[in-house]
Amino acid sequence: MRQELMSLPKTLAEDVARNLVMVAKLLDDEPEQAYQYARVALRLASRVAAVREAAGFASYAVGKYSEALAEFRAARRMTGNSDLWPVMADCERGMGRPERALAMAGEPEVQKLDRAGQVEMRMVAAGARRDMGQADAAVVTLQSPELASHSIQPWTARLRYAYADALLAVGREDEAREWFAKALEADQGGTTDASDRLAELDGVEFVDALDPEQEADDGLKPVAEPKVEEAEVEEAEVEEAEADAELEADAEPEAVEPAVEELQSDEEPEDAEDEGQDDDAEDSAEGVEPTKAEARSEDQAGLPEKDGDDS
User: How far is residue 190's CA from residue 205's CA, in Å, rounded to a whole number?
Assistant: First the structure.
């Protein structure tokens, strides 16, 4: 790659190199950002094979298989080697063409691959078999000397994992568990989730004690609260209900009395007028002095009674 970049002007070569470094740095953890850097490098130096290859892997990482296949083909034309053949076949799978991927597994280019490339091609072919509904054939495709080897290679964990997954797809759970364990044993770089698959088969559920979201939820909870007896709780609820009832009772007369008075004034206007007249008559009677006859009767009522008739 360095030799290819040296053919570019110095400033341009430095810009392209910086973008390619960011692609390599972000490809695994931040594929979307890696893709953006790859597009920039591609605009700057589309005739550099290393740039086309980097753009292909960035597109592949974000699931843009058609773009990735185009970039890989361009890089292959520029270099003339077949190293990208397995990932090109996998792009065919991603585009929904497993038959084409399986056909590529039988092409002469596969014989030009090194051992690691041939293992990759075998895994792609097994995946194409499963895509076509040929689960048993996928298991057979992965059975190879590399799978039976006890030596640990960079591709060993992934090959064993693919075989275990294929076994599980055909219902051979015990064998699948055995091969997931072997994949975990060979997975020194943590490239697979074999440990999670084993736990799933064993019915074990892991809880992340350092989960920041869980810690945030725990931080919202009180550390400790005093326990209250049930009787005290019920008493508090009763007092609260009584207080609410008193508030409602205090508020009702103010709201109800004007309405009642209005209804009474509408329904009994004549009675109210008669009562007003009676009240006026009583008030006028209280202001009149008693007559002489009434005064004599009152005087007689105050005299003692005679024992007999005067006559």
Answer: 19
Whole-prediction pTM:
0.64
Q: Which two tokens stand for residue 225?
A: 């609260």
Question: What's the whole-number average pLDDT of the chain?
Answer: 79
CB environment 259-281: b (16+ within 10 A), e (fewer): eeeeeeeeeeeeeeeeeeeeeee
Positive or negative CA dihedral for 138, 143, 149, 153? negative
Instruction: Give CA–CA dist 198/228, Å, rounded.
Output: 46
- Measured CA to CA, the distance from residue 88 to residue 71 in angstroms comes to 10
* 157 and 191 Cβ atoms separated by less than 8 Å: yes
Segment 101-123, tens digit of pLDDT: 999 999 999 999 999 999 999 99
pLDDT for the residue 286: 46
The pLDDT of residue 209 is: 59
**Cα 86 to chain center, whole Å?**
35
3-state secondary structure 215-255: HHHHHHCCCCCCCCCHHHHHHHHHHHHHHHHHHHHHHHHHH
> Structure tokens of 126?
């097994």
Rg of the Cα atoms in the chain: 49
Contact 53, 84 (CB under 8 A): yes
For the cut 50, the answer to whether the pLDDT of residue 291 exceeds it is no
Q: What is the DSSP string of 181-223?
A: HHHHHH-SS--S-HHHHHHHHHT-----TT-HHHHHHHHHS-S
Question: pLDDT tens across 118-144, in order?
Answer: 999 999 999 999 999 999 999 999 999
Reported as a pLDDT band with limits 50, 70 and 90, residue 302 is very low
